[in-house]
């Protein structure tokens, strides 16, 4: 695997599958890896809010024998323009073995990585959420036992970090993906991401489709996935407008009825019941959202192990 873990786009099909395989091995036998990162330090550098990512990463390094250090951006001179992100990267490299950044700007993440002497993990940017993607694919494999030939339907915001990661990840490993989102530049899939993911899909004998109709997108899906309509990057004053625009893409029983009978429902959380998904669906038998959340721990252990045990 590359020195850093910044985007699913950067990984080969083989590397993605290896990470998923290792995640499952660690989940089955965590004791085997309990001392594998002994003496290693993980620096958590967070600008964006977090629950699952921060807690799971701290737990992951601790359960593998290492130590986490949580540092929030509001305490950093970089946040106040007192220090460049290049210098922050150079300083952190002197103290820690690996750094995980949850910051809004993907460009700043890349800049940080270029100036870092230690591996850098993308713990979420506005463009990409690769840690979530590995856990998602791990969950799909546990439930469906395969990737090739499956159809994943994503409903909601097409211009979203999770959507981007799903498009890259599914197209690279052979899952057919359909995105159902409102029309318009603000909500539609990025032209660049769409073009790149279609290119990956062609190589891996899968398909990428974008619809502006939820039912059409969900037809015969094996997996139905959604995310919050109000991502961290969205200004709160946009809430009323976005609820009106996205209401037709809510995942409810009617939408799930268009998917296959054995379809699973996924959500990266946090979820707003009654908005992007109904309580009946997210708390129903088809939902795997908490298995999905649990798998973040094991997939993050796999990423840490791969980066630090070369």
Protein model, in words:
The structure is a single chain. The protein has 310 residues and is an alpha/beta fold. The protein has two domains: 8-128 and 296-308, Rossmann fold; 132-292, Rossmann fold. Helix content is 43%, strand content 14%. The protein is built from twelve helices and nine strands. The protein has helices at 13-28, 52-63, 85-95, 106-114, 130-144, 161-173, 191-203, 214-218, 239-246, 253-258, 279-282, 289-308, and strands spanning 41-46, 67-72, 98-102, 120-122, 151-155, 176-180, 208-211, 223-226, 264-267. Strands 7-6-5-8-9 form a five-stranded parallel β-sheet. Strands 2-1-3-4 form a four-stranded parallel β-sheet, with helices on both faces. β5, α6 and β6 (176-180) form a beta-alpha-beta unit. α1 crosses α5 (130-144) and α5 (130-144) packs across α6. It is globular, with a radius of gyration of 19 Å. The mean pLDDT is 95.
Question: Could you give the topology of this structure?
Answer:
Elements (H helix, E strand, L loop, with lengths): L12 H16 L12 E6 L5 H12 L3 E6 L12 H11 L2 E5 L3 H9 L5 E3 L7 H15 L6 E5 L5 H13 L2 E5 L10 H13 L4 E4 L2 H5 L4 E4 L12 H8 L6 H6 L5 E4 L11 H4 L6 H20 L2
Parallel strand pairs: 1-2, 1-3, 3-4, 5-6, 5-8, 6-7, 8-9
């Amino acid at each position: 695997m590359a020195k850093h873990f910044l985007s699913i786009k950067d990984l080969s099909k083989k590397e993605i599958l290896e990470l998923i395989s290792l995640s499952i091995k660690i989940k089955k036998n965590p004791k085997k890896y309990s001392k594998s990162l002994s003496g290693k330090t993980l620096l958590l550098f967070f600008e964006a809010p977090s629950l699952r990512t921060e807690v799971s990463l701290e737990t992951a390094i601790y359960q593998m024998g290492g130590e986490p250090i949580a540092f929030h951006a509001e305490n950093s001179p970089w946040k106040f323009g007192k220090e460049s992100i290049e210098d922050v990267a150079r300083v952190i490299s002197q103290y820690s073995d690996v750094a995980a950044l949850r910051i809004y700007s993907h460009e700043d993440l890349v800049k940080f990585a270029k100036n870092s002497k230690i591996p850098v993990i993308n713990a979420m940017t506005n463009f990409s959420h690769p840690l979530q993607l590995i856990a998602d694919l791990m969950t799909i494999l546990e439930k469906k036992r395969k990737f090739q030939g499956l159809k994943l339907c994503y409903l909601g915001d097409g211009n979203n970090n999770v959507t981007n990661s799903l498009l890259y990840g599914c197209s690279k490993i052979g899952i057919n993906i359909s995105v159902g989102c409102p029309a318009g530049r603000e909500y539609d899939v990025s032209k660049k991401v769409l073009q790149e993911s279609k290119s990956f899909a062609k190589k891996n004998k899968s398909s990428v489709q974008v619809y502006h109709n939820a039912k059409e997108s969900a037809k015969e899906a094996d997996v139905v996935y959604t995310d919050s309509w109000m991502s961290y990057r969205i200004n709160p004053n946009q809430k009323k407008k976005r609820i009106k625009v996205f209401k037709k893409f809510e995942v409810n029983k009617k939408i799930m009825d268009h998917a296959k009978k054995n379809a699973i429902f996924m959500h990266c959380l946090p979820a707003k019941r009654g908005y992007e998904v109904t309580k009946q669906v997210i708390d129903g038998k088809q939902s795997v959202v908490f298995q999905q959340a649990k798998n973040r721990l094991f997939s993050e252990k796999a990423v840490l192990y791969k980066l630090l045990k070369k």
